[in-house]
Amino acid sequence: MPLLSVQNLSAYYQTEVYGVSRTVRAVDGVSFELYPNEIYGVAGESSCGKTTLIKVISGSIKPPLKAHAGSVNFQFGAYEIDMLKISQAELRENIRWKEISYVMQGSMSVLNPVRKVIKTFEDIVDSHQPITNKKLFLAETQAHINRLGLTDDVLDAYPHQLSGGMRQRVAIALATVFHPSLIIADEPTTALDVVVQRGVLQTIKEIQAESGNTVLLVTHDIAVHANVADRLMIMYAGRIAEEAPTENIFAAPLHPYTQHLVSSLPVIGERSTKASLKGAPPNLANPPAGCRFHPRCPLAIDICRTDVPEMLQVAERHRVACHLVKDGSQ
Ligand SMILES: Nc1ncnc2c1ncn2[C@@H]1O[C@H](COP(=O)(O)OP(=O)(O)O)[C@@H](O)[C@H]1O
Ligand code: SF4
Ligand SMILES: [Mg+2]
After folding, report:
1. Pocket residue to mutate for ligand 2, from 308, 323, 329, most atoms within 8 A of Cβ
2. 26 CA → ligand 1 middle, Å
3. Which of 2, 108, 203, 208 lies at a C-alpha separation of 20 to 30 Å from 175?
């Protein structure tokens, strides 16, 4: 049974500037499911709607963002929770940190710059489960951060005294205190250099393998997904272009946009320059008709300019939305 089921979800930013209203169709008709014990990657270039998607599924919708259509249901044990209807109070008390937690880019949104790291742990733990034994709390917190490769002195530091990689590990430690069923990581390694990035990704993988929970890993960096994700969703301009197990995405990508992403990965020993994609991603306030990729697609045909391609199931866990893809081939 899926842990999360998203069906036909659309979420738009509705803004009004100098009396002119604008609708940004950041997430448009997205359906997917997350299962227990997997790392599910969401890839796609900047501004394609990745962060908006996770805001909606985690119940963090605030104006000007509005859910326009569709459903988001979480299955926690025997309970099914409608994330589009959940109250902020219930989210705060029962869901956030305990069932769903976040690791964000830069990590400073969760760390208070004027409080020592241990105080942030105290605030989060105490707000869900009042701390009655401070010694035990400290010992448990130390053991927890040690498991993530951090030493005890980190708890006594202010966030600015830590490196970016250590702060990201602290953010992961905070996100895993209550062993949530779902950890959402939004560009968790984007600001880090490659070596530190590898360490943080390894930590995310180890934690997931140990606890068997689900990780939703969002990053524009397809190379990160190649190393970490079990399954991968490729997003383009607010829609899903393709979804498959990661090895299928890299071995046999079917959507022209996925093919571009995969072929743009550097190959050791190869000297030729990679072909770049012409044009820019569309403005989601006025997206192109038909397939939103058509103005940039080298394979576009007439129907692509008028008809939205349907999502086609081409193999057991492989879905593609492209007019040229039929029965698993292009
Ligand atoms: N608060 C906002 N108001 C209006 N548009 C927004 C807002 N936040 C994001 N957007 C727009 O929504 C689209 C998707 O953004 P986002 O979800 O942040 O993409 P990603 O995470 O893939 O970079 C972009 O066109 C972005 O400009
Ligand atoms: S539907 Fe058409 S424009 Fe879109 S990816 Fe397929 S071939 Fe290209
Ligand atoms: Mg983002």
Report:
1. 323
2. 6
3. 2
Q: Class for domain 4-266+274-281, per CATH?
A: alpha beta
Q: Whose CA is nearest to atom 1 of ligand 2?
A: 322
pLDDT (tens place) for every residue of the chain, 330 residues total: 999 999 999 999 999 888 899 999 999 999 999 999 999 999 999 999 999 999 999 998 999 999 999 999 999 878 899 999 999 999 999 899 999 998 887 666 788 899 999 999 999 999 988 999 999 999 999 999 998 889 999 999 999 999 988 999 999 999 999 999 999 999 999 888 888 899 989 999 999 999 999 999 999 999 999 999 999 999 999 999 999 999 999 999 999 999 999 998 877 676 666 667 888 999 999 999 999 999 999 999 999 999 999 999 999 999 999 999 987 677
> Whose alpha carbon is nearest atom 12 of ligand 1?
26
Residues with CB under 5 A from ligand 3 (ion): 50-51
Check pocket membership of 291 for ligand 2, CB cut-off 6 A.
yes
> How remote is the CA of residue 61 from the centroid of ligand 1, in Å?
13
3-state secondary structure the chain: CCCEEEEEEEEEEEEEECCEEEEEEEEEEEEEEECCCCEEEEECCCCCCHHHHHHHHCCCCCCCEEEEEEEEEEEECCEEEECCCCCHHHHHHHHECCCEEEEECCCCCCCCCCCCHHHHHHHHHHHHCCCCCHHHHHHHHHHHHHHCCCCHHHHHCCHHHCCHHHHHHHHHHHHHCCCCCEEEEECCCCCCCHHHHHHHHHHHHHHHHHHCCEEEEECCCHHHHHHHCCEEEEEECCEEEEEEEHHHHHHCCCCHHHHHHHHCCCCCCCCCCCCCCCCCCCCCCCCCCCCCCHHHCCCCCHHHHCCCCCCEEEECCEEECCCCCECCEC
Domain locations along the chain: 4-266+274-281
Pocket of ligand 1 (CB under 6 A): 13, 15, 24, 26, 44, 46-52, 64, 284
The atom of ligand 1 lying closest to the CA of 285 is 25
